Amino acid sequence: MKRAPKTFTLVLVLVALALALALSVTAALSARMGRRVTGDLYGHLAAAAAVAVDDVSARHDAQAQGTLTILQSLGVHLESGPPPNATVVRIAPALRDTGEMAGRLLGDPSRVRVTQIPDSQIWIRSVHDPRRWIVLRAASYRRQVIDSSLLVTAFAGLIALIFAGWVARLLTRPLERLSSHAGELLAGDSIAAHLHGAPREVQRLAEAIDGAGERLREAARERELMLAGISHDLRTPLARLRIALELGDADDPQRREAMVADLQQLDDALEQCLAFVRDGRGEALRELDLATLIGQLLALRAQPDHWRYDGPTSLHANLRPTLLRRALGNLLDNAERYGAAPYRIALTQDAQELRVCVEDRGPGVRAELLPKLGKPFVRGDAARGGGGSGLGLSIVQRAAELHGGALHLRNREGGGFIAELRLPISS
Fold first, then answer.
1. How many domains does the chain have?
2. 229: Cβ–Cβ under 8 A, 6 or more apart, which residues?
């Protein structure tokens, strides 16, 4: 398997490339501006020198001849022949810009020729004698400029590389610390001290990992609790079935009915456990008539006349049908199992949410037990009777959370219990 590069290497290369690109663009712009400035400056000097030399050469006195001698020693002389062919070699851009500027200043670009044979020169034709050319030697610093540019570029590149390494280390060090302590974070330990001064993105990543670890730990606790609850819930009916079989009670209709009830209790417990495990996260939202669903559930009750429905005849919303059907069925089952008739289910709606309220007239739940309801395998048996798997309200609670809502449980004034399922209205 090919080994993946480290984040430090990737960040270092990225920052180095960005700096190299910035240096290249800066050098190109600087060279372009420098060439323009050089061409403008030396063009003015060449035009001024040509005008002065042309005027001096038109005089024939001793002073003029002395001035020409001095100028010749400075690299300025007169030629009677035409300039060399400038197209033989490529003219340097700075020299070409200098010649163009001098031609514009003199008012006649055709009077100016530039050549690099044998060295860089500017030829300007005299206005007094078209056969005479004023030759200005243009000093070339190309090699020195190239050498100095390479040196400056190498030095700047070295500094940029050091800076890129420092930036890459600064960016990747928090990730390395997070990677080395990820196990502790998943285990629930705090690593805030190791992430002090880390960027917000790294801190958010740590929070996400911590949240994932908490969910994993919660899932593990739920599995352990489920296994313990299943073993407890299945042991009693299995023991009764075994005793009944050993005593030969299968021929007794009454005993056989009790055995069937035990089997139904086992089936209900397993169904609730499977429903709790399959939490409905994969079910898509779709439009559902909630009032019709409630009517269907009430029609399936063993004694539907004990129930009263208060609400609209039709109410459409985007919900998870299977998950919500199971949740509402559990609320109805809990009311009948733990409470007493008459029962009531109410459906209301406002601008923000839907409310499904299930009420009974039973003994209610002890106040200290109310905050614990909705957790797996927590029952209100001591106050409201026996039976059940302890997962009904947990499934309702999870259904509410998956819809972005909440489950509110409270005792009813005057006796009884109220379970209110609140679901936000999705657009």
1. 3
2. 273, 376, 377, 389, 390, 391
